[in-house]
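Review session, final week

We close the course with one last complete record, chosen because it touches almost every idea we covered. It is RWD domain-containing protein 4, a protein from Daphnia magna with 188 residues. Go through it on your own first, then we will talk.
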Amino acid sequence: MNSENQEEELEVLRSIYEGDANFKEMNIKTFQYKYGTEGDPHSFVLEISWPESYPESLPVISLDAFYNKHMQPNVKGNIILKLLKEADGNIGSAMTYTLIEWVKENLEELLVDQPLNLDTCTSHVANLEIDDKVEPTSKDNKDRRSGLTKAQKRRQWDRMDGKGEKIRGFDWVDVIKHLSQTGGAQAS
């Protein structure tokens, strides 16, 4: 039953937002809608994903798109909280269109705490204090790996097979080359 409801809602969304450049279907269960204009600090991308049990359960609402990097974390949290509250009242029915339109109607109210200019954001970042005390962790290997350059990551990936494991023979030694360098064992 849920898949039938999802297919029906998908058809409706495609017909409503056909030609709307702000609406993007990422896959058959994930949708993005962009509010505002490019470069405006009050613009953001809302992503709604359907779990298997949708519409009998809440959709997954996200503002984690790279486009939203300029938004304050408290503003993002407030938008998600209010959207989940709105979605809670629509459980059991198709709600993606309702949520997208609800954000359009309440856009100004949702973005009250978002600064109008990016200078304000950067001044908040400049005021952050950094604690120099570093605790040694067991995640040193992961931290080192994430600090690799793009070329280093590519070389590392090229040395792996499709499963992320090192290919057979990656540490084999060329016996002839090794013996020619070491001189081999002396017969007594």
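Two points worth writing down before the exam:
The chain is about 40% helix and 10% strand.
The chain has two domains: 2-117, 142-181.
Good luck, everyone.
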